[in-house]
Structure formats: C-alpha cells, structure tokens
C-alpha cells in the first residue's frame, strides 16, 4: 500500500455543515479562519466569524471525545433571553476571527 497518510489527521471538523444556511445563519460560516489548542492540547477552539450576519461564534470541543458540539459561544438570537450579564453582539462583530486559549474556557 503506497497511499500517503497523515498520522496526525483527526478527521474532518465541519461544524457548520448540515446547519441552516443563509447569511443570517451558517451560510457564510468561515469555520477555522482562526483556530487554537488549549495549553494541555485536549481542546480545539475554532472560530467562525461569518455566522449569524457576521456576528460570529466560537466552537470549543475536546479532541478526545466523539461527542458533537460540546461548547459553542455565540451571540444570542433576537429575543433570546440569556442569564447573567451577556449582551448581544452587534452585526459585523466577527466573533471568532481571532482565537486564543484561556484556561477558564476549558475548565
């Protein structure tokens, strides 16, 4: 067998695929424009600044788990009530265009 294989290939990470399309949802997702790993290399953080009218979102998942969407940080939908002091993010905010790790996000 002479096929080329990448031993570090963890499969495909397409969290926008199969979700509602259009610019007001995941149609202009741009998943992975920014990406990072947690310091312990257990979590991958992927930004998707094109979602929700360019408000964007941040997807965080444990790379050792097969479970889908473990944590998604996004702006609330219009009329959605969010506990705490979370405020809506304005259109064109590009949340997820730059991603770095924070210990408090992965604990």
Automatic annotation (TrEMBL):
Endpoints of the signal sequence: none
One example of a Gene Ontology biological process annotation: integrin-mediated signaling pathway
Positions of FG-GAP repeats: 17-70
One annotated GO molecular function: integrin binding
GO CC field: external side of plasma membrane; integrin complex
PANTHER family: INTEGRIN ALPHA, INTEGRIN ALPHA-7
Name this protein carries in UniProt: ITA7 protein
Organism: Sinosuthora webbiana
Gene of this entry: Itga7_0
């Amino acid at each position: 067998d002479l096929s080329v294989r990448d031993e570090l290939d963890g499969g495909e990470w397409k969290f926008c695929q199969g979700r509602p399309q259009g610019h007001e949802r995941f149609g202009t997702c741009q998943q992975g424009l920014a990406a990072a790993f947690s310091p312990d290399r257990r979590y991958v953080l992927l930004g998707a600044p094109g979602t929700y009218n360019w408000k964007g979102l941040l997807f965080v998942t444990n790379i050792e788990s097969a479970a889908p969407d473990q944590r998604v940080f996004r702006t609330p939908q219009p009329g959605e009530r969010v506990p705490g002091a979370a405020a809506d993010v304005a259109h064109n905010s590009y949340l997820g265009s730059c991603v770095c790790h924070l210990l408090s996000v992965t604990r």
